[in-house]
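Sequence in, structure out. Go.
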Amino acid sequence: MSDLKKKFDAAAADLKNLSEALGNDIKLKMYGLFKQSSAGDVTGSRPGFTDIVGRAKYDAWAAVKGTSTEDAMQQYIDLVESLKLGRTTKTNDPVKRVKEVIPPLDDRERERRRALVRAHYAAESRNGSAPTSQPATTSSTLGSLTTP
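Output:
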């Protein structure tokens, strides 16, 4: 048995002894790396939309498709080690994932959305139906609405 395989098996055993609860995103990442290490590239068809868990597992495994067995093992070992030390890494940092998926709003887009909300409330008040709640206004919005 190779040294990498021994470390991989030890990491799999260590994962069971972690005291902290792991989030679903980390569990899925671990699942994908484990399957890639042990079975290679994903096989079969993607489960239907009613099998939510199976679909998530399939997607996690498919995300590491093409990764060599040795690389997947090393990534798995590194992730377990970082979890044991209580660190987040590039692969499991949820804040970084959100920032990659949802880009921050620029000032122009933020102002466009505020204008849409103001127009919506103005249209409701013209129609005679009072809005259920008013949008939060900022000092810059109030400053542009008042005359000096």
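Check: The chain has a mean pLDDT of 78. The chain has two domains: 3-101, 105-132.
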